[in-house]
Design goal:
The complex is a heterodimer of chains A (866) and B (154). Chain A is an alpha+beta fold and 866 residues long. Among the domains of chain A are: 11-42 and 51-101, no CATH class; 397-599, Alpha Horseshoe (Leucine-rich Repeat Variant); 694-813, Immunoglobulin-like; 822-860, no CATH class. Chain A contains 38 helices and 11 strands. Chain B has one domain: 2-Layer Sandwich (Beta-Lactamase), CATH 3.30.450. Chain B is built from 5 helices and 7 strands; from the N terminus they run ββαβββαααββα. In chain B, the strands form 2 sheets. Chain B has a 5-stranded antiparallel beta sheet, with helices on both faces. In chain B, strands 6-7 form a two-stranded antiparallel ribbon. In chain B, strand 1 and strand 2 form a beta hairpin. In chain B, helix 2 (89-106) runs parallel beside helix 5. Classes of the chains: A alpha+beta (866), B alpha+beta (154). At the A-B interface, helix 1, helix 3, helix 5, helix 7 and helix 10 of A face strand 3, helix 2, helix 3, helix 4 and strand 7 of B.
Chain lengths: 866, 154
């Protein structure tokens, strides 16, 4: 039965909703709605002022109509009017309408903000919450401007009610996300952290969310939250079930709060303080222990809540990566889940184990579960679970199990979901290349890939196999033999024809001695596929044919006949025609020497990074799989690029046959793929340094320093004595994400010793239309005249952008006024007598000066004697 | 000792909450991120398509664009929470259940019609338990107490 409470009936609304539901057709519904809209319009325009109840009812009807999917272009004013009612039910509907139908009319915004202001100041917790929820739901810039400074005060005030604190904390979080520049930091940080000690766990929950987000941007400021979080977590985890009655859910103590606290702790490295660290370890051990205890309830809610905490604890253990016992225990626990009867748990275990696989402490432990994972690949019915199994096999792959894993992945590929085939192909290609000791295995694997999933073998993959075969003398014969055999299949994939054509064209001579693969047989085999292939493949085959003419004079005449045929010389495709004509001519007029020179064996390819990994990364998206990130970074800002540069240097000293630096010992631990496929971390290409707005910042600290069509960079700085802090705001003006965003500050050598600029790392992704903040901490060590440069790089729509901006950090920012008597002043002034201390420069002013205006200005700034 | 830092997205939060019936009618849509009306409609349709083809052999989690959806079916209604990829699946799965239990208590054996006729009250329940894309209050006792108090107001 629809619950209708007293006094709040709104019978008219219920009747209207019933009418709509009873409409037999879309047309009838529209008719009924239009009738109602007309009715409401007339009521709103009518002479008689509507009472609050009616207004509420009509605004609610309008809202309902909107939620059905019809546009509403009136009613906003009435909704805003409801805010000034002193009745909760009327206010509630007013706020709801405003939150759902956000309007950018500035008059309305002003009125709404006014209503909110009054409710915030009302000291009525119900009204305050309505207001706070509205700000949190709408989160507009205008609201941020109006209330960002008020809300922290509400949050930390002693007499604020608990439920209001909860809402204020999350409201502040919202504003911080959308308008970080307007949310004041500093003075109330300590009190926010202190909320972790509140006795109301709902307040603690909200505060933890707030602190976690703030800590990600400014970890140093919120460092003190770590010990409080550990203490809180410890108390929850060891509490008896009657302690946290209101917050015990199916016999699990405060599961959501526990998860949030564990999440907060993941913003920081393991605590330095030994006592704190051991307390946290105890906590984590307790959580792991509980997983082994018999369950207090058979209900799935109990196990889900308990395991939610467990998985987050494991995530923290993985994040710290410092306690081998915990890591191994986590691995074992996950291993048990791999065979749990619940699909959710098997899925999560596979996912979590993937990250464990890249830790040097647990890599071996993970490998012990290989058979189980392989089995999952074969038997799981949910494709997303199978995908996690593939990811895990990929992550746990190393030299010891590569052959087996690749074989299993190939076998899985035969029946895999089409949507994930390309990814599996890329992964197999990468593994085969990386762990090939014997390149014949590598060639077999790639050819198998083409055979099984040819459509999903992208160009990068088959280019790569060609590169490798060209560069490795020892596998060329084998490659020729194998492709020859593979091409015998009646229906082979076009990619195989491409690879085969190229390899036989280069190395067919290595198998020509055997009569079963004589030159003529090879040519006929290739040509039998010719008419089935697309134009690019045929073009490749034509090139193979001319190479054959060079390699095997005995088939020259046969091939020339083919080239001479009308279907080639008069082929509709220009490229094919050109090749046929030119190759034919070449074969006729060139002497054997010249032909041999022109069609000499391909030289080895220069070593280069694999484009396959780049393609895989693009597919998975940034940050999805930890082992894919090539710039792993901590939230605290240190990047691990140094390892990348080391390996790039290493590979350049290897001989050209070691294209991929695969002969180096595989490194264990975090950078399994990174040191092989490191993307060059070259410094950004020299770009023009933008100085356009630089002079404007001499006398001001805030403003836009750079802007182009894509990006706006704004600054807000504050200086005190020799220290400065600069907030840099990067605004993405487009609707597409910026990826691989990086920004660093560079200084000339001289400047480096005079000015310290420390920048905190930024997210690599800026969403379309979003703004990101970076903080620079500046310390002036001695006087300086140069300026640091902000170097920005990011990817927009595939193109790399490079921007360099001169940062307006000038010496005068560190000036401080001082007071002195005029006598002292002139004494000092006279002391500045040495030639280099006195400078006079006469120049013509740009604009004529008005004496009176100038006099007034000087009078105003009398204190400015430089 | 090198730290294995997992990339933590700054945008770790709920993106939206949807309650839809099997036919695809939306009974509640709560958005915690800016989308314009066309995008919202598209998302609603996509979620419905993705979620209604799944059955008992599937997990309660599904990848969705750059996010993921944690969902559970209760009779004819699908409760879906869209969260970030690194969010805690089970925590949100039980977050849904917690919310459903509150609705059930508040509406005395809640059914789809209750959500239709009292749509404006459902928003109040949501805002008690979720706010700014985060979980706000998890104690059913506290939430129900507050809701009953609000119910008594004029």
């Amino acid at each position: 039965m629809p619950a209708v409470s007293k006094g709040d009936g709104m019978r008219g609304l219920a009747v209207f909703i019933s009418d709509i539901r009873n409409c037999k057709s879309k047309e009838a519904e529209i008719k009924r709605i239009n009738k109602e809209l007309a009715n409401i319009r007339s009521k709103f325009k009518g002479d008689k002022a509507l009472d609050g109840y009616s207004k509420k009812k009509y605004v609610c009807k309008l809202l309902f109509i909107f939620l059905l999917g019809h546009d509403i272009d009136f009613g906003h004013m009435e909704a805003v009017n409801l805010l000034s009612s002193n009745k909760y039910t009327e206010k509630q509907i007013g706020y709801l309408f405003i939150s759902v139908l956000v309007n950018s009319n500035s008059d309305l915004i002003r009125l709404i903000n006014n209503g909110i202001k009054n409710d915030l100041a009302s000291r009525n917790p119900t009204f305050m919450n309505l207001a706070l929820h509205c700000i949190a739901n709408v989160g507009s810039r205008e609201m941020a401007e109006a209330f960002a400074s008020e809300i922290p005060r509400v949050l930390v005030a002693r007499d604020t009610m608990d439920s209001v604190k909860q809402s204020a904390a999350l409201c502040l979080l919202r504003l911080n996300r959308t308008s970080p520049d307007l949310v004041p930091m500093g003075e109330w940080t300590a009190r926010v952290v202190h909320l972790l000690n509140d006795q109301h766990l709902g307040v603690v929950t909200a505060a933890t969310s707030l602190i976690t987000t703030l800590a990600q941007k400014n970890p140093d400021d919120f460092k003190t939250s770590v010990s409080l979080a550990v203490a809180r977590l410890s108390r929850i985890v060891t509490s008896a079930s009657i302690d946290l009655q209101d917050y015990t859910y199916y016999f699990v103590a405060a599961p959501w709060l526990s998860v949030k606290l564990l999440r907060l702790l993941q913003c920081y490295p393991p605590p330095e303080d030994a006592a704190l660290r051991s307390r946290l370890t105890e906590c984590l051990e307790t959580i792991l222990n509980k997983a082994q205890e018999p369950p207090k309830s058979k209900k799935v809610q109990h196990s889900n809540a308990k395991n939610a905490v467990l998985f987050e604890a494991i995530a923290l253990i993985i994040h710290h990566d410092s306690e081998p016992t915990l890591l191994v225990r986590a691995c074992n626990q996950l291993g048990q889940f791999l065979q749990h009867r619940e699909t959710n748990l098997r899925y999560l275990a596979l996912e979590s184990m993937c990250t464990l696989a890249s830790s040097e402490f647990s890599h071996e432990a993970v490998k012990t579960h290989m058979e189980t994972v392989i089995n999952a690949l074969k038997t799981e019915r949910d494709v997303s679970v199978r995908q996690r199994a593939v990811d895990l096999l990929y992550a746990m792959c190393d030299r010891s199990n590569a052959k087996q894993i690749v074989a299993e992945m190939l076998s899985y590929l035969e029946t895999a979901d089409y949507s994930i085939r390309e990814e599996i192909v890329l992964k197999v290609a990468i593994l085969a290349e990386k762990y090939a000791v014997d390149y014949t295995w590598y060639v077999d694997t790639i050819l198998n890939l083409i055979r099984i999933a040819g459509d999903y073998v992208s160009e990068e993959v088959w280019y790569r196999v060609i590169q490798i075969v060209i560069n490795r003398d020892d596998v060329q014969g084998y490659a020729a033999k194998t492709v020859f055999e593979a091409l015998q299949a009646p229906a082979c994939h076009e990619n195989l024809v491409k690879v085969g054509g190229y390899i036989l064209g280069e190395f067919g001579n290595l198998i020509a001695g055997d009569s079963r693969s004589s030159p003529l047989v090879q040519f006929n085999l290739l040509h039998s596929k010719f008419h089935l292939c697309s134009v690019p493949t045929r073009a490749l085959l034509l090139s193979a044919y001319i190479k054959f003419i060079n390699l095997f004079p005995e088939v020259k005449a046969t091939i020339q006949d083919v080239l001479r045929s009308d279907s080639q010389l008069r082929n509709a495709d220009v490229e094919l025609q050109q090749r046929a004509v030119e190759y034919l001519r070449l074969s006729c007029i060139a002497s054997t020497d010249i032909l041999a020179t022109v069609l000499e064996e391909m030289p080895p390819f220069p070593e280069r990074e694999s484009s396959i990994l780049a393609k895989l990364k693009k597919k998975k998206g940034p940050g999805k799989l930890p082992d894919m990130d090539d710039s792993r970074r901590s939230v605290n800002g240190s990047t691990e690029h140094s390892e990348n540069t080391d390996t790039t240097n290493k590979s350049s000293t290897h001989s050209f046959t070691d294209v991929l630096n695969l002969n180096s010992a595989p490194s264990s631990g975090a950078n399994l793929l990174i040191d092989v496929f490191s993307e060059s971390s070259a410094p950004p290409a020299a770009t023009d340094v933008s100085e356009e707005n630089f002079p404007r910042f001499v006398c001001k600290n805030n403003g836009v320093i750079y802007e182009n069509q894509l990006l706006q960079i704004g600054l807000k700085s504050e200086y005190r004595q020799n220290l400065g802090r600069m907030y840099v705001f990067y605004g993405n003006k487009t609707s597409t994400q910026f990826l691989s965003f990086s920004s660093s500050v560079s200084s000339s050598d001289a400047l480096k010793s005079q000015l310290n600029v420390h920048s905190k790392a930024v997210d690599p992704v800026i969403e379309g239309g979003a703004q990101m903040q970076q903080i620079l901490n500046i310390e002036c060590v001695s006087d300086f005249s140069d300026a640091p440069v902000l170097n920005i790089q990011f990817r927009y729509g595939g193109a790399l952008q490079n921007i360099a901006v001169k940062l307006p950090v000038m010496l005068n920012k560190f000036f401080q006024p001082t007071e002195m008597m005029s006598q002292d002043f002139f004494q000092r002034w006279k002391q500045l007598g040495a030639p280099q201390q006195e400078v006079q420069k006469i120049f013509k002013a740009k604009h004529p000066m008005d004496t009176e205006v100038a006099k007034a200005k000087v009078k105003r700034h009398k204190s400015l004697w430089l | 000792m090198p730290h294995l830092f997992i990339f933590l997205s700054c945008f770790l939060q709920i993106r939206f909450i949807l309650i839809q019936n099997r036919a695809g009618k939306t009974r509640l849509a709560k958005w915690y991120m800016q989308f314009d009306d066309d995008e919202k409609q598209k998302l609603i349709e996509e979620v419905h398509a993705v979620v209604t083809v799944r059955d008992a052999k599937h997990t309660n989690f599904v990848e969705f664009r750059n996010f993921k959806i944690i969902y559970r079916r209760y009779a004819g209604l699908y409760f879906c929470i869209c969260v970030d990829v690194t969010d805690n699946n089970l925590a949100y799965l039980e977050g849904i259940h917690n919310f459903v239990e509150v609705l059930n208590e508040y509406f005395h054996n809640v059914c789809e019609l209750d959500l239709v006729f009292n749509f404006y009250k459902v928003y109040t329940v949501v805002d008690e338990m979720f706010l700014a894309g985060e979980i706000r209050e998890t104690s059913q006792t506290k939430v129900l107490k507050q809701l009953l108090m609000l119910q008594s107001l004029e």
